[in-house]
Amino acid sequence: MNAGQVKLYDTNPEILKLLSDTKLQVSIMVPNNEISNIASNQTAADEWVKNNVLLYYPSTMIRFVLVGNEVLSYHSDQAIKMWQDLVPAMRKIKKSLKNQNIRDIKVSTPLAMDILQSSFPPSTGAFRSDISDTVMAPMLRFLNWTKSFFFIDVYPYFPWSSDPFNISLDFALFKSNSSIVDPGSGLTYNNLLDQMLDSLIFAMTKLGYPDIRLVISETGWPNSGDIEEPGANILNAATYNRNLVQKMTTKPAIGTPARPGVVIPTFIFSLYNEDQKIGPGTERHWGLLTSYGTPIYEIDLTGKRSVSDYATFPAAQNNVPYKGEVWCVATKDADVTELSAALTFACNEGDGACDALGPGNECYQPVSVNWHAGYAFSSYWAKFRGHGATCYFNGLAEQTTKNPSGFSNNFVRLFSFGFFILFYVLVILQVEELATSLV
Known about the structure:
Elements: E1 5-7, H1 13-18, E2 25-30, H2 35-39, H3 42-54, E3 61-67, H4 77-99, E4 106-108, E5 110-112, E6 116-118, E7 126-127, H5 132-145, E8 149-153, H6 157-162, H7 169-172, E9 180-181, E10 188-189, H8 192-206, E11 213-219, H9 234-249, E12 255-256, E13 259-260, E14 266-268, E15 327-330, H10 336-349, H11 369-384, E16 397-400, H12 404-438
Helix pairs in contact: 3-4, 4-5, 10-11
């Protein structure tokens, strides 16, 4: 695929060994659950570096150690404690590397755009008040002192899909012929990614660090998703990522309006579709490849191939929000044993979601695990989707725009009527046969 770098979310030994003696630069990650221990214990940091860096470096070209992943996006009591431990852990990992005389590995941490309290227009960019002074200022000081990079996960898909009528799809896909002027800075923007990146640059500038370099640690566009997730399709995914590659590999570098001409190293998320990941459908469809390793669409990561050289796709059908009703049903090939367990879960947790399935009630027939599970899934989802529930159930459920209960009830009525007629005919025949034998 002609990739130049790869970012891992762990330190998988097999993968790190396979990456040895390649030209791929590698970023590895300290798991979130190890941050607090490392922050309070230099020996723990030394041990982590020994086990996860020294065993592979320099044969594997490790260039970044990333401490945690989107740590500041979590808000439990334990997570908030981790906020305070993040920068101390980064310092201790850096000290361990320095003690091993390793100078070419930078330390950073990937953060999400929710670290910003304000992001539009970009000139209003500012960090959240709960982390600005206590976490972001020390972090920026560390990154500036070590000449490291600020890693940011930035997805134009999310602001666009949450407001597709006010944000142009072409603006999100780098296809816009129009532009937006930031009234505060006077800078002109012709794509959503630049707006998002510059809001972060303005936020850093307000804390006194205008020059810390950026790395896009995640970006991309989903190639599929649930019915109610607009714009998640192969055409948009290919368009976004191909245009992204063209923008980021152009020489001389384009940069952003606030930092013209500056190179921004960029990681596309992700290599594979994650077919077993929970959550909305888009969570499983960010890959350049299927979960089996086959390409979903053509892409040249070097940027040497012109976007116009690729074959065209059919027009997308879901670029506007779906307005009709959606139901959640069991997949046709679902394992019956697993389906039974999921059915039990949905009914037990569903706060009366399965009352209609009781013997003699309106949805009891037909008596099949698949039908009962489909009803339970749809009922549970309808009750709890507002609280984050999804139509997934470990891959046993899928969305549909066809009302399954209407079909089933009509089928049951038809089946019942047909069964009655058949029974009546058989009785008549048996009576006639009995009468004949008596004569």
